[in-house]
Structures are given as C-alpha cells and as structure tokens.
Amino acid sequence: MKHLAGNPHELPGNRLSLQAYKARHFSYRTEGAVAVISLNRPERKNPLTFDSYAELRDLFRSFIHATDVNAVVLTGQGDNFCSGGDVHDIIGPLTQLDMPGLLTFTRMTGDVIKAMRACPQLVIAAIDGICAGAGALLALGSDMRLGTVRSKTAFLFSRVGLAGCDMGACAMLPRMIGQGRATELLTTGRAMGGEEAERWGFFNRLCEPDCLLAEALKLAQDLAIGPNFAHAMTKKMLQQEWNMGVDEAIEAEAQAQAICMATNDFHRAYHAFVAKQKPVFEGD
Question: Are residues 184 and 51 in the same domain?
C-alpha cells in the first residue's frame, strides 16, 4: 500500500496504526478510538487545496486498514466548517488546465467521497458556520451530520458557472432530502440554514455552537465502543443497496446478518444479556 505523507506506523498484514499519524494539510488527533480531522485554515473559513484533497483521500483510504480507529469526526476550526475549494490555490489554477488536467482534478475530488464511503468507520461531520461547495460535499459524504442554527450549507457550483453534479451530489443529495429540494439547492446555489437543514433531514440534529464538537465526539465515542464489525456491515449495506431491488436487498441483508451472527461480539452480547450485564464489544 502507498505510504501516507504522515508516515503512519505499519503493522504486519498491511494493517495500520493511525494513532500517531502526522497530518500535513489539516489537523489530526485521536481521542481513544476516535480520529478527529479538523480543517485548519480558520482565517479563510477552512478552504481546501489540491494537497488537502489528496491527503484526505489517502487518509480515508488508509482507515480501511486501521487497527485503532473505530469512528471519525470531521470538523473545521474556528466558527466555520469549510468554504470549499480555495479560490487562489484551486479555482485560479483550474482555469489554466486543459481537459485531461481538469478531469484528473475532478476525479481526485470524487475519490475523496469514495474513500469516505468505503472506509468501515462511521464518519460524523460537525458543521458550524459556512459549509459550502466542496465543503458541503464533505458533509454530504459523511454518515451523519450534526449542525448549528447559524450554519449555512450551500452547493455553490451554479454560482461559478458549474453544474451541481459534483463529487456525487446528484446521487446522494436527492436520497437524503428529496429530488425537488435537491434540485433547488443544486441549481440555485442558495444557502440552507441550520433549522431548514435539520427539517429537511440533512442534519441529524442541531447543537449549540459551543457544544457541537463535544456532542459529535460523544456520538463517535459511543459508536466506537459498539460492535464495530457490525457497524461497518451496516454502513456497507446502506450504500451497496442503493443499486439493488428490494428482493435483492433482502437477500443481501440475510447474508450480511448471518455473517454478523458468527462474530464473537454477537456471542458476547448474548452472554452479557443472560448475565444482566452491559456487553463489552471488541469488534471481532
């Protein structure tokens, strides 16, 4: 496997320890088995660059092999989540690229979302303030989203002469909030406020700004001590079944659940129930 820029500790069998990962283009830390990724250019509302896109893609790909990360929190420093692609570092240079170069870039940004969806850990986005453009796609690509009343989520592509079909938006957003609402947001580029985002199902819930990260961490930590093999299976099936008919999905879920029933965590839960104790899951 290709080495990350942060040089995580490699373990036998292509498994990784990511507790000591050193990020170059954003902030990274772990709290127990939860990885916290913070976009860290608050003076410019945490925009993305070519390098931060690439590092996010590589890091999320490496979570597949992580032995010590069971959940991920994605957030932004300061009072904003992410303002999208950096106007100077990305938008300007894109106007100078030829078609092969442009396609290389758009495929790389899409690969970030693919990596987020493919990693077995549940990804929770903690969203305050501006969540725009590619930042809105990072939120959309997460498994759950906690927001604030003052947050503003905008799919801005139409405002700069681009289509709303970016990084999987036309596939994911209608499934989350409905076709008509998604069409409105993707074509007008208007901002969706926090209360509207919760009402439409984009946010799982709203938090006070001062409590947002703490609540996201609490949710992630609760998930991280749960049956992680089963959580990963749930995440995989939620996404895999998009392309299935109902009968096909029922059969796929029968197979997935049978696999989970063969895990030690399932047996631990049974024995804990019999003993009137809380199960301690180990992810195997």
Answer: yes
Q: How far apart are CA 233 and CA 257, in angstroms?
A: 8
Q: Whole-angstrom Cα distance, residue 136 to residue 154?
A: 6
**Contact between 260 and 270 (Cβ < 8 Å):** no
Tell me, yes or no, whether 232 lies in a domain.
Answer: yes
Q: Cα separation of 15 and 41, whole Å? A: 31
What does each of the 284 residues of the chain score in pLDDT, given as a tens digit?
A: 334 544 445 555 567 889 889 999 999 999 999 999 999 999 999 999 999 999 999 999 999 999 999 999 999 999 999 999 888 888 888 888 889 888 999 998 999 999 999 999 999 999 999 999 999 999 999 999 999 999 999 999 888 888 888 899 999 999 999 999 999 999 999 999 999 999 999 999 999 999 999 999 999 999 999 999 999 999 999 999 988 887 888 888 888 888 888 888 888 988 888 899 988 998 88
Residue 99: which domain range?
9-224
CA distance 121 to 221: 12
Listed in sequence order, the residues at least 6 apart from 82 whose beta carbon sits closer than 8 Å to its beta carbon are 39, 45, 46, 47, 48, 76, 130, 131, 132, 134, 135, 138
Domain count, the chain: 2
Q: Is residue 211 part of a domain?
A: yes
Distance CA(115)–CA(66), nearest Å, equals 14
